[in-house]
MFS transporter (Streptomyces neyagawaensis), 400 residues
Amino acid sequence: MTTTTAIRPRALVRASGGPRYAVALAVDALGTGLLRPFLLLYGVTVLGLSAPVTGTAMTAGVVAGLVCVPAVGRWLDRGARSTVVAASMLVRVVGVALLQATPAGNVWLFAAAALFLGIGNQAWPAAHAALVATVAQGRERDAALAGGRALRNAGLGIGALLATACLAGGTTALRALAVVTGLAYLAAAALAWSVHLRARPAVAEAGDREEDSDEDGEPVPRMRALLTANVVYVFCLNVPEIALPLVLVTQMHASPVWSAAVFVANTVLVVTLQVPVTVLMSRFPRRSVLAVAGVVLTASYLGFLAATSLGHGWGAPAVAAVSVVCALGEIIYAGSATALVTALAPARVLGRALARFQLSTGFGLAVSPAVITALAPHGPAALWGGLAAATLLSAAAVAR
């Protein structure tokens, strides 16, 4: 088993697809950060749609995007790499253009815009992972995937901050943000396409196999336990954005500043620690690391349960402190889950394997807000105890 014991920036950029591709990732993330957090606000404020109608249209876009993911997997398995990444960005350009063309009160054009944005958002992760897996091998690939996530989170954070600063301009500023987002997607697509990368027919190297493969080198084909567990694991991505603000503001009656501080801290931790933690954990089998991530997330959920019992005085600071543990679990999970899929899948079906993984991720992200908001009114034990039990069971399934 090849291990990565040091972080070499130039090698990391090369393993991630090269400098142009790294710039494409940064520009794409910046554009996404400008618009994605405020898409609901755009529908309500600029187009005059009701919040339920806007939310339903956005959800439909996410679901439709998931439906298109299997086709993306088959396209990747025909050898396409940078073309698929560029296409996922160009599709979002169409979405932004439709958003600009939508007159006030027209829900159908807004839904069409959300559809194209959803397709691009769901197609991109599998395409990006396949591209990196083609350029790099072994633990260098794991570090490159982690580097891409850190870069993307940095771009998303900067974009969101810029968008927040522009919100004082009202509807005009929101329309301008949409235009800038479309231009960013267009520039990113051009840069990604210019890499001109296709997969070469190859058999995965023996040294790049996970320890839990079959004797003939073929991995378990369906990955049912991994994909099922991933649906639960991915809930951690919505904890800083949905669960903690819900608990802090509506139940603990804490200042919204605490929610903002938790979100900013989570982003900073992911940007700064994603690569170092992934490199540090590279000395252990990927499956074991993913199981450890589940244990860490379980511990953080139990920590949230304990923190919410402290009352209004110490509760909010305790929740913020425990959120650091949750962020660490998220980092370990993100650094091992996709890497495990790329290590288990033979090169000839890598695209379809990544597509199945993205389906489980997208499904988890789609249902987690509903599950969290349904459990929260029943008390901290129902919310955090339920998440802890489900995550621990998932970690046990992964370990087995």
Observations:
- The radius of gyration is 21 Å.
- The mean pLDDT is 88.
